[in-house]
Write a structure and sequence with these properties.
The structure holds two protein chains of two kinds. Chain A is mainly alpha-helical. Chain A contains five helices and two strands. In chain A, a hairpin with a 6-residue loop joins strand 1 and strand 2. In chain B, strand 4, helix 5 and strand 5 form a beta-alpha-beta unit. Classes of the chains: A mainly alpha, B alpha/beta.
């Protein structure tokens, strides 16, 4: 099944704009706020502190760089793959936090809302996960198209 | 060059550019993080242990809104009650409880040393943050007690925080 080239372009622009927007939101804010959000996921230990701090410092910058690269069409394989991997890791981290938040707030999954540290404040979680899934698919499409083009260009003529 | 090699190459370029840019941005911004410092002295929820492996938890006295209001009358320079605002400078500048000192626990070195003498001589030190799930008050209390030696029984926490103070329509102060 062939995918129209326009769809690849739209996927790249969609993923690039979203990465750039959320990265910039995090960069503009107080880095301590994002650091607290990263810690709230309890995926990294407090010690050595450099792990948490480096994650909080690097993630927003990566998102901005990946966003610009996707929009400009640079390093599409690496950007598509790393962005999809990062978004998948975020989404899994959010899902792991869901049971505790549901229990703390006393609400069901579809009413659950909290600040996931994604750069958009408090959000309804099921819609955030759906949004992340659409971004992951877009990044996978970007990656797949870049790989396909690479293979075609390396075929003997 | 094989596809896998070029993919790894692109990923490494991105990682290197990200790391270099992140270090540069963090060093240039005035509110950048100190990378080797543990900004959280208070134990992570459920661990019960602090950064040195010793128990750093303490049951601080909790004040409700009426009690906080009552003690607020004695926050003048000659009185013995000190109010500390544990929110960020940005939030503090937008509005805070009158006579409260800004004391961001994540940048404690900029605030606590100047206030330490006053805090140790106080009858009570009341700490507040936003309210609700906010843990900045307890982080500041932990920092004051376990790092700066302020007696724990001097400290009280206003759990309902800034949001309750504003909702009650009480006086606020904006930084000039």
């Amino acid at each position: 099944m062939s995918v129209p080239p326009l769809l690849f372009l739209l996927a790249r622009l969609y993923a690039g704009a979203a990465m750039l927007y959320f990265g910039a939101r995090k960069l503009i804010g107080d880095p301590v706020d994002f650091l607290k959000e990263v810690r709230a996921y309890a995926l990294l230990p407090d010690q050595p502190a450099v792990l948490l701090n480096l994650t909080a410092v690097c993630v927003p910058v990566f998102e901005v760089i990946a966003g610009v690269a996707l929009l400009a069409g640079w390093l599409r394989r690496g950007t598509g793959l790393l962005s999809a991997a990062l978004l998948s890791a975020f989404s899994i981290a959010i899902m792991l936090r869901v049971p505790a938040e549901m229990s703390a707030q006393g609400v069901g999954f579809f009413e659950l809302a909290f600040d996931c540290g994604c750069g958009s404040g408090e959000v309804v979680i099921w819609s955030k996960l759906l949004f992340n899934l659409s971004l992951i698919l877009a990044c996978v499409l970007v990656f797949a198209q870049a790989v396909k083009m690479r293979r075609q260009s390396s075929l003997p003529r | 060059m094989k596809l896998s090699q070029s993919l790894v190459g692109e990923s490494l370029i991105l990682a290197a550019v990200t790391l270099a840019s992140a270090m540069l941005v963090n060093s240039l911004r005035s509110d950048g993080l100190s990378l080797c410092e543990n900004h959280f002295l208070h134990p992570a929820p459920g661990t019960g242990e602090g950064v040195q492996g010793e128990a750093l938890e303490h049951d601080y006295v909790s004040w409700d809104l009426p009690t906080t209001q009552e003690y607020h009358k004695y926050t003048g320079d000659e009185d013995g009650i000190v109010f500390l605002d544990a929110r960020s400078r940005k939030s503090y500048d937008k509005g805070h409880i009158p006579n409260a000192y800004l004391c961001d626990p994540y940048r404690h070195g900029d605030f606590i040393p100047d206030l330490l003498e006053k805090l140790k001589a106080a009858d009570y030190v009341l700490i507040y943050c936003t309210g609700g799930d906010c843990e900045d008050s307890i982080e500041l209390a932990t920092r004051l007690v376990f790092e700066y030696g302020v007696p724990a029984d001097l400290i009280a926490i206003f759990d309902q925080g800034w949001s309750a103070w504003v909702e009650a329509g009480l006086d606020t102060e904006v930084s000039p």
